Amino acid sequence: MTTPIVDFVRRYAQSGTARLHMPGHKGQSLLGCEPWDITEIRGADELYEAEGIIAQSEANATRLFGTIHTYYSTEGSSQCIRAMLCLALQGAPRTGKRPVLLAARNAHKALLYAAALLDFDIQWLWTAPEDTGALCSCPVTVQALSAALEELAGQGRTPFGVYLTSPDYLGGMQDIAALSAVCDAHGVPLLVDNAHGAYLRFLPQNCHPIAQGAAMCCDSAHKTLPVVTGGAYLHLAHDAPVQDEAAVRGALALFGSTSPSYLILQSLDACNAVLAGDYPRRLAQCCAALEGLRRSLNKAAAARQCPVPLAVAGAQQEPMKLTLDAAALGCTGTALAESLRRAQMECEYADPRYVVLMFTPENPPQDYTRLQTALEQLLAPLPESERKDALSYYEDYLDAAGPENEARAIAELGSPEEVARKILDEQSPQGVSAAPASPARKPRSRWRMVLGGGLAVLVLVCFFFQHSKATPVQPVEPASPAVDSSSVPEEASSSYLAVLADTVPLTIPADDLGESTLQIPLEKLNQELKLSLNYGSVTFVTDPSLTSDKYATFQFDNFPHSPVLRTTGGDGRTTLTFEMPENWQVAEDAPEAMLTVTIPADALTRLIISLETGDVRLAPMQLKTLNVALTNGSLRAEDLTVTRDLLVELPAGGCVIDHLSVAEYANITATRCIQLHLDGDPADYTTDARTDNVVRIGNKEYDKRYTSTGPNGILNLYAKGLIYLNVDE
């Protein structure tokens, strides 16, 4: 197959022509690729008015993919997504109503940008409540799609398109053929973000979205094909809403640079020759090798009685991704990724549960061998009790560190296997220096106890000096060391313990009820705070008299033990923990334990609270992110503004927020009632409120569900009890 773009640039680079045009490097090598980097000079064609070598190259790609027309993008699938939606809008019938797109909720953010730029509404297709999985997944059934289309039809609205992501980031694939049939029956074009699936056309059984009925789709060639980063395709089928070439190129130009990269164009052009050669054979070999690796890993995991298969498999899983379920190894996905990184393997993606590894025919055989060896080592037999102990420790420790510092925490701990081995070593005779444990109780790792894995009840993580390297926490003895009074500010009286920047581990003195007050300079919080408590309620009080150069105050009342402050040293991270006696239980007549946090209203941008038993009350606050998870408790807040994400999980409680403003996204799940007084009309939010009871909006009631579409942010609400929005009692 010809490569007209590559051939032209090669001839130009060898011609000796004086480059009196862009780009500024003039073909002089700094990286080595500069001689091949040109601009739209005479003979080089123009991407958005292609009539020469670019048009010829796109014609080659069109034949390879079997489309009506395939267009190049040098700005990834993001450019193609916006152009695709623009074209779908152009081809939609004019009804006089605001245009609406029906889209699966795991859509790439490029869709949201397109909605803002093109001014259309989005009706979300949500994951079914009974389905479990990661945020990246949103399987859509034929029944769910049909119901959503019929619901919109009942409102007198026809979407200008149905938008799906397939494959998703974890490798899950939608049933495009079945879903496209539903779209055809309703006269709605199916648009597919196929960014991760360009190779699907070249499998023995072609399962590319265009071949399965999609009207338009985008492929990120650079993700799975041998193409430079940024190379992508926009594919049109015979039933695409707009077929006119000038209109398509105009839509691409609307969202693209006027200086498209010729390095990327050459890469797309050269890829055509690869695809026309032995690529399908090598692709089949790669898929077969990965399937063999999946079976081998899952067989080894089953032999070791892992709770779930290690490698995700199934008919709806794409063949070129190897998605690992870290739960099989008793660790988090990010911990598993770090273990692989130590073995010189870098993953594509990791979240709290999954690790995604992307293979192509270009991976050498040793990559498979190295991965299998590393995973089999992690699967080496360990006593189940120690595997659970390691997992428990990891969960506690990483929860304390927070998502933004998880990698650093993992680096301190080592791999899950190393943690388990350390626990075993500590429990061995040569590793135990303390007195023997009682025969009635299993010996516990002294190392684990010191770090507080299973005993940490309250964890406060403060972050600053982000560039610094963490230093492991040192053990402390249960004694109260002397504090240099000369280093304590005047503001700190005898009833307070002031926490300075470089303090050594301290035990805070307290009386029999565990009452003590802790002051921490606000700069140590660095606008972020995470609390984890297994007993006791938390109240936030905002004090307008406090300024940024003052302290945040933590008042502990009726706790059975004193908080222990530890600083890790050079990184400036401060950790506040409760070390509870083993098998400690709350007495029935014990007074309620209460933590009161007093801060300025603008002291935090990110707040994460996790409680086992207890309620949370928040004073007026403005945050970027708020995450509240209460196993057995309720949330009440006043004058709450969240500019980014609000996430609330209340499996045994309710939620009351007197005044709430959400700029982007809120997800609230509660067993009891949800009562929100929103700033603005609830209809101005994009809302999906579901309940087993009634949704009440002002003086109107809706049976079990209320939905709306508006510009003020996304509200996803679920409660078994009533849901009240802007109801005045």
Protein model, in words:
The protein is of the alpha/beta class and 729 residues long. It has 17 helices and 32 strands. The strands form three sheets. The protein has a seven-stranded mixed sheet with strand order 1-7-6-5-4-2-3, with helices on both faces. A seven-stranded parallel barrel has the order 25-26-28-32-29-31-27. A three-stranded antiparallel sheet has the order 8-10-9. β29 (686-697) and β30 form a beta hairpin. The protein is globular and about 85 Å long.
Number of strands: 32
Number of helices: 17
Low-confidence stretches: 421-513, 567-575, 577-582
- Radius of gyration, taken over Cα atoms and rounded to an integer in Å: 29 Å
What would you call the structural class? alpha/beta
User: Per DSSP, what share of the residues sits in E-state strands of 2 or more residues?
Assistant: 15-25%
Portion of residues within helices: 25-40%
| CATH C-level of the largest domain | Alpha Beta
Tell me the CATH superfamily of the largest domain.
Type I PLP-dependent aspartate aminotransferase-like (Major domain)
Major sheet size, sense and barrel closure? 7 strands, mixed
- CATH arch. level architecture of the largest domain: 3-Layer(aba) Sandwich
Order of neighbouring strands in the sheet with most strands:
1-7-6-5-4-2-3
Mean pLDDT: 79
Tell me the overall shape. Answer: globular
Cα distance, first to last residue? 74 Å
CATH topology of the largest domain: Aspartate Aminotransferase, domain 2
Total separate domains: 4
